[in-house]
């Protein structure tokens, strides 16, 4: 039944934003954890580990996130496993973001000059100790700007989860539009919310990048 757009609709949109934020945090934490493992797999001394890690990244980055969402939500139902929308969306965005984090962090790890690795090895440190005490602290500084920048992409990617029924900001907007037939104000408001979430991260990324470049030039 059609009805008029009311103030409470914008309140519902605002409350739905918390699910967008939650899903983004799941993607960041879970994707960061998996991505860190894959990043180290990419620089492993074992050729099979490097090949598996590279293959994982190629598969994830080479397929649309929307297809990955459909596989986890609709595909598993064909074999009798029905995941709730939040679980399916969480798995999909986590694995998707992990592939991109892995490549970002691999590049940062490989940006550390080889003499740093050799100096750490000369101190009789294990590979883990070399990474923990020497390499990762330096690589983390390089990774701050691109990691903050990719968080913007994660937030925007969560809008695709509306297509598997997860009621985040975009899905809530679709539901309201279906009964009010007034998409313009709804999607303008949703766009403003996405901008409010993404702009600070974009600004932070640019600031960190300028700071890093300035420190390198001195």
Describe the structure.
- There is one protein chain.
- This protein has a single domain (7-217), classed as MetI-like fold (Orthogonal Bundle), CATH 1.10.3720.
- The mean pLDDT is 92.
- It has helices at 7-42, 47-61, 65-75, 85-110, 114-122, 127-157, 169-180, 183-217.
- 80% of the residues lie in helices and 0% in strands.
- By secondary structure, it is an all-alpha fold.
- It has eight helices and no strands.
Structural class: mainly alpha
CATH class assignment: Mainly Alpha
Strand content: under 5%
Rg over alpha carbons = 21 Å
Strand count, sense and closure of the main sheet? none
Percent helix, as a range, is: over 70%
CATH topology: MetI-like fold
Termini separation: 65 Å
What does the overall shape look like?
A: flat
Number of helices: 8
